[in-house]
Protein backbone atom coordinates (compact mmCIF):
# COMPACT_ATOMS: atom_id res chain seq x y z
CA UNK A 1 0.00 0.00 0.00
CA UNK A 2 2.90 2.34 0.71
CA UNK A 3 5.59 0.79 -1.48
CA UNK A 4 5.91 3.73 -3.85
CA UNK A 5 5.94 6.44 -1.20
CA UNK A 6 9.32 7.88 -0.24
CA UNK A 7 8.00 9.56 2.90
CA UNK A 8 5.43 8.25 5.37
CA UNK A 9 3.49 11.03 7.05
CA UNK A 10 2.53 10.66 10.70
CA UNK A 11 0.25 12.47 13.12
CA UNK A 12 0.54 12.25 16.91
CA UNK A 13 -2.47 12.68 19.20
CA UNK A 14 -1.72 12.77 22.94
CA UNK A 15 -2.57 15.28 25.65
CA UNK A 16 0.93 15.22 27.17
CA UNK A 17 3.44 17.42 25.35
CA UNK A 18 6.47 15.62 26.82
CA UNK A 19 5.20 12.25 25.63
CA UNK A 20 4.56 13.61 22.12
CA UNK A 21 8.14 14.90 22.01
CA UNK A 22 9.36 11.54 23.28
CA UNK A 23 7.54 9.72 20.47
CA UNK A 24 9.09 12.02 17.89
CA UNK A 25 12.52 11.26 19.36
CA UNK A 26 11.86 7.50 19.19
CA UNK A 27 10.77 7.81 15.56
CA UNK A 28 13.81 9.88 14.59
CA UNK A 29 16.33 7.68 16.44
CA UNK A 30 15.56 4.63 14.32
CA UNK A 31 14.90 6.47 11.07
CA UNK A 32 18.29 6.43 9.34
CA UNK A 33 16.68 6.71 5.91
CA UNK A 34 14.52 9.68 6.96
CA UNK A 35 11.47 7.69 5.94
CA UNK A 36 9.05 9.21 8.43
CA UNK A 37 7.77 12.76 8.69
CA UNK A 38 5.67 13.97 11.62
CA UNK A 39 3.11 16.26 10.00
CA UNK A 40 1.55 17.51 13.21
CA UNK A 41 0.93 17.03 16.91
CA UNK A 42 -2.53 17.29 18.49
CA UNK A 43 -3.41 17.33 22.18
CA UNK A 44 -6.95 15.97 21.83
CA UNK A 45 -9.52 14.68 19.38
CA UNK A 46 -10.91 18.17 18.97
CA UNK A 47 -7.44 19.51 18.24
CA UNK A 48 -6.97 16.70 15.69
CA UNK A 49 -10.10 17.81 13.85
CA UNK A 50 -8.66 21.31 13.55
CA UNK A 51 -5.26 20.03 12.42
CA UNK A 52 -6.77 17.87 9.68
CA UNK A 53 -8.46 20.93 8.21
CA UNK A 54 -5.07 22.60 7.76
CA UNK A 55 -2.60 19.77 7.17
CA UNK A 56 -2.07 17.03 4.62
CA UNK A 57 -3.75 13.75 5.54
CA UNK A 58 -1.32 11.49 7.47
CA UNK A 59 -0.71 7.85 6.58
CA UNK A 60 -0.61 6.75 10.22
CA UNK A 61 -1.96 8.46 13.34
CA UNK A 62 -0.38 7.55 16.71
CA UNK A 63 -3.28 7.79 19.16
CA UNK A 64 -3.60 7.95 22.94
CA UNK A 65 -6.80 6.86 24.71
CA UNK A 66 -7.03 8.92 27.91
CA UNK A 67 -7.52 12.51 26.70
CA UNK A 68 -9.80 15.37 27.78
CA UNK A 69 -12.90 16.09 25.73
CA UNK A 70 -12.92 13.52 22.92
CA UNK A 71 -11.13 10.46 24.27
CA UNK A 72 -9.26 8.01 22.07
CA UNK A 73 -12.27 5.78 21.41
CA UNK A 74 -14.47 8.64 20.25
CA UNK A 75 -11.62 10.15 18.25
CA UNK A 76 -10.80 6.89 16.46
CA UNK A 77 -14.45 6.30 15.62
CA UNK A 78 -14.75 9.81 14.14
CA UNK A 79 -11.39 9.65 12.36
CA UNK A 80 -11.99 6.33 10.60
CA UNK A 81 -15.52 7.29 9.68
CA UNK A 82 -14.33 10.61 8.21
CA UNK A 83 -10.99 9.44 6.78
CA UNK A 84 -11.15 5.64 6.31
CA UNK A 85 -7.76 5.46 4.54
CA UNK A 86 -5.89 6.62 7.64
CA UNK A 87 -4.20 3.92 9.74
CA UNK A 88 -4.37 4.21 13.54
CA UNK A 89 -1.69 2.92 15.91
CA UNK A 90 -2.84 3.16 19.54
CA UNK A 91 -0.12 3.94 22.10
CA UNK A 92 -1.63 3.88 25.57
CA UNK A 93 -0.96 3.09 29.22
CA UNK A 94 -4.20 1.08 29.20
CA UNK A 95 -3.37 -2.61 28.85
CA UNK A 96 -6.76 -4.00 29.87
CA UNK A 97 -8.74 -6.50 27.85
CA UNK A 98 -11.60 -4.02 27.55
CA UNK A 99 -9.36 -1.29 26.08
CA UNK A 100 -7.59 -3.55 23.59
CA UNK A 101 -10.69 -5.34 22.31
CA UNK A 102 -12.67 -2.11 22.08
CA UNK A 103 -9.97 -0.57 19.90
CA UNK A 104 -9.71 -3.73 17.79
CA UNK A 105 -13.44 -3.56 17.16
CA UNK A 106 -12.97 0.04 16.03
CA UNK A 107 -10.50 -1.35 13.45
CA UNK A 108 -7.25 0.23 14.60
CA UNK A 109 -4.18 -1.24 12.92
CA UNK A 110 -2.01 -1.65 15.99
CA UNK A 111 -1.78 -1.37 19.77
CA UNK A 112 1.32 -0.58 21.86
CA UNK A 113 1.99 0.14 25.51
CA UNK A 114 3.56 3.49 26.39
CA UNK A 115 6.69 1.83 27.79
CA UNK A 116 8.02 1.18 24.28
CA UNK A 117 11.58 1.29 22.97
CA UNK A 118 12.92 2.49 19.61
CA UNK A 119 12.76 -1.05 18.19
CA UNK A 120 9.12 -1.47 19.24
CA UNK A 121 8.08 1.75 17.55
CA UNK A 122 9.77 0.97 14.26
CA UNK A 123 8.67 -2.66 14.23
CA UNK A 124 5.07 -1.47 14.62
CA UNK A 125 5.33 1.19 11.91
CA UNK A 126 7.00 -1.17 9.44
CA UNK A 127 4.47 -3.92 10.12
CA UNK A 128 1.54 -1.58 9.53
CA UNK A 129 3.13 -0.34 6.30
CA UNK A 130 3.94 -3.76 4.88
CA UNK A 131 1.46 -6.09 6.54
CA UNK A 132 -1.42 -3.81 7.48
CA UNK A 133 -1.38 -4.42 11.24
CA UNK A 134 0.75 -4.87 14.37
CA UNK A 135 -0.18 -5.95 17.88
CA UNK A 136 2.34 -6.14 20.71
CA UNK A 137 2.70 -9.28 22.79
CA UNK A 138 0.30 -8.18 25.53
CA UNK A 139 -2.35 -7.15 22.98
CA UNK A 140 -1.93 -10.42 21.08
CA UNK A 141 -2.33 -12.37 24.33
CA UNK A 142 -5.62 -10.61 24.99
CA UNK A 143 -6.84 -11.27 21.45
CA UNK A 144 -5.81 -14.92 21.71
CA UNK A 145 -7.67 -15.35 25.01
CA UNK A 146 -10.77 -13.79 23.51
CA UNK A 147 -10.62 -16.40 20.73
CA UNK A 148 -10.31 -19.19 23.28
CA UNK A 149 -13.43 -18.03 25.07
CA UNK A 150 -15.58 -18.43 21.95
CA UNK A 151 -17.79 -21.47 21.44
CA UNK A 152 -15.59 -24.53 20.89
CA UNK A 153 -18.10 -25.79 18.32
CA UNK A 154 -17.90 -22.65 16.15
CA UNK A 155 -16.04 -24.44 13.37
CA UNK A 156 -18.79 -27.07 13.19
CA UNK A 157 -21.62 -24.56 13.08
CA UNK A 158 -20.34 -22.31 10.29
CA UNK A 159 -20.51 -23.70 6.77
CA UNK A 160 -17.59 -21.64 5.48
CA UNK A 161 -14.63 -21.59 7.92
CA UNK A 162 -13.30 -18.43 6.24
CA UNK A 163 -16.20 -16.58 7.86
CA UNK A 164 -14.78 -16.99 11.36
CA UNK A 165 -11.12 -16.41 10.47
CA UNK A 166 -9.65 -12.92 10.31
CA UNK A 167 -7.47 -11.82 7.40
CA UNK A 168 -4.46 -12.00 9.72
CA UNK A 169 -5.24 -15.62 10.52
CA UNK A 170 -5.67 -16.49 6.85
CA UNK A 171 -2.31 -14.86 6.09
CA UNK A 172 -0.73 -16.92 8.87
CA UNK A 173 -2.26 -20.12 7.48
CA UNK A 174 -0.71 -19.41 4.07
CA UNK A 175 2.72 -19.51 5.70
CA UNK A 176 1.86 -22.54 7.85
CA UNK A 177 1.43 -24.50 4.62
CA UNK A 178 5.05 -23.83 3.62
CA UNK A 179 8.36 -25.16 4.93
CA UNK A 180 9.04 -21.92 6.83
CA UNK A 181 9.70 -22.16 10.56
CA UNK A 182 7.52 -20.21 12.98
CA UNK A 183 10.45 -17.85 13.52
CA UNK A 184 10.67 -17.20 9.78
CA UNK A 185 6.90 -16.66 9.63
CA UNK A 186 7.22 -14.09 12.43
CA UNK A 187 9.86 -12.20 10.43
CA UNK A 188 7.77 -12.37 7.27
CA UNK A 189 4.68 -11.02 9.04
CA UNK A 190 6.66 -8.40 11.01
CA UNK A 191 5.48 -9.91 14.29
CA UNK A 192 7.24 -11.28 17.36
CA UNK A 193 7.60 -15.06 17.79
CA UNK A 194 5.35 -14.81 20.86
CA UNK A 195 2.63 -13.18 18.78
CA UNK A 196 2.91 -15.96 16.20
CA UNK A 197 2.59 -18.50 19.02
CA UNK A 198 -0.64 -16.74 20.00
CA UNK A 199 -2.03 -17.01 16.46
CA UNK A 200 -1.10 -20.70 16.33
CA UNK A 201 -2.76 -21.56 19.64
CA UNK A 202 -5.88 -19.55 18.74
CA UNK A 203 -6.18 -21.38 15.42
CA UNK A 204 -5.65 -24.75 17.09
CA UNK A 205 -8.65 -23.87 19.27
CA UNK A 206 -10.80 -22.52 16.45
CA UNK A 207 -10.08 -25.33 14.03
CA UNK A 208 -10.12 -28.11 16.61
CA UNK A 209 -6.60 -29.39 15.82
CA UNK A 210 -3.45 -29.99 17.86
CA UNK A 211 -0.53 -29.85 15.40
CA UNK A 212 0.86 -27.79 12.54
CA UNK A 213 0.33 -30.64 10.08
CA UNK A 214 -3.33 -30.96 11.09
CA UNK A 215 -3.74 -27.18 10.83
CA UNK A 216 -2.27 -27.17 7.31
CA UNK A 217 -4.52 -30.05 6.25
CA UNK A 218 -7.54 -28.23 7.68
CA UNK A 219 -6.64 -25.07 5.72
CA UNK A 220 -6.28 -26.97 2.45
CA UNK A 221 -9.36 -29.13 2.99
CA UNK A 222 -11.59 -26.11 3.59
CA UNK A 223 -10.21 -24.06 0.71
CA UNK A 224 -8.56 -21.47 2.94
CA UNK A 225 -5.21 -22.20 1.30
CA UNK A 226 -4.75 -23.37 -2.28
CA UNK A 227 -1.54 -25.31 -2.90
Automatic annotation (TrEMBL):
Domain HTH luxR-type stretches: 158-223
Residue ranges annotated for the Response regulatory domain, each copy included: 9-129
Pfam family name, one: Response_reg
UniProt-recorded Gene Ontology molecular function terms: DNA binding
This protein's UniProt keywords: DNA-binding, Phosphoprotein, Transcription, Transcription regulation
Stored CDD domains: LuxR_C_like (cd06170), REC_NarL-like (cd17535)
4-aspartylphosphate modified-residue sites: 64
Highest taxon of source: Bacteria
Gene Ontology biological-process annotations: phosphorelay signal transduction system; regulation of DNA-templated transcription
Name under which the protein is recorded: DNA-binding response regulator
Amino acid sequence: MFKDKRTINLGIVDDHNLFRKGLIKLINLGDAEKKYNVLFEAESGTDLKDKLKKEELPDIVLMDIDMPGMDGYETVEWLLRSYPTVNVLVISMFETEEAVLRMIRLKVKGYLSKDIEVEDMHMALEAILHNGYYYSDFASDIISRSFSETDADTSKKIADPKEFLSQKERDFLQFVCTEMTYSQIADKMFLSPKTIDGYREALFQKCGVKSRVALALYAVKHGIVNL
